[in-house]
Amino acid sequence: MRSRKGLFWLLMGVLTLANCQTGAAQGKKPKVVILATGGTIAGSATSQTSAGYQSGAVAVDALIAAVPQLKDIAEVSGEQIASIGSQDMNDEVWLKLAKRVNEILAKPDVAGIAITHGTDTMEETSYFLNLVVKSDKPVVLTGSMRPSTAMSADGPLNIYNAVAIAADPTARGRGVLVTVDDDVHSGHDIVKTHTTDVGTMASGEAGLVGATLFGKQTWYRTPSCVHTSKSEFRIEGVNALPRVDIIYAHANMSPDMVTSAVDHGQGPRDRRCG
User: Fold this and answer.
1) What is the number of structural domains in the chain?
2) What digits encode the pLDDT tens for the residues 31-42?
């Protein structure tokens, strides 16, 4: 009986190795889907040096076409989830995005997902996805501080790095990630710190998850907070999210805002780990 089992597993190993070698010989690359939501990374201005621009004006196909090097690292396709500035991000788009992420990651041939997003609310979206995505496969958000038409636009390399991370099997199990300006952050920890600096994103005391240099990753840590497949939060059958108000407390503040929030919905949220 043991010899038969041993022979079976030996044959399975040989077949697996053969399939891997066949895939390598055929030049197969990991499949990554880019989900676009708009933002500055898809922004368009009247000139390369214009400070004003329209967010979300550039479609996902054009973003992909602007980075032809993507074909060297992954088999890439794109979907347009929304075309908004992230200051207009809302619960409806969050639920649409998260449900589509879970649908795509359930496909066995998909290695990971990259999401293009505005930076204003990137920390909120990444935190939300970190709780409701139900897969260990990489989900990587990226954005830019300069529109796609700007001189020295930072979006193309950020997209390249996001796709490279999403295609990287060593990125699995680290929760939702954010890459901007060659840094890799946890979606749980990231905070925007500046309105124009390309190095605006920071992870505070938690620190970076890793770094990426032209698509080559160096990992520093794996986030310890409960996330993605181990999170208790689920969105199957959820069509609306409950109202939760966040109130900034300051010296000599009036209680009016707190009582108004209580009267109209729920109180401030506790944003604890997991």
Assistant:
1) 2
2) 999 999 999 999
Catalytic residues: 40
Residues 163 and 35 both lie in one domain = yes
pTM: 0.84
Point out which residues pair with 35 in neighbouring strands: 79, 115
User: Do 214 and 267 fall within a single domain?
Assistant: no
pLDDT digits (tens, 9 = 90+) for 94-133: 999 999 999 999 999 999 999 999 999 999 999 999 999 9
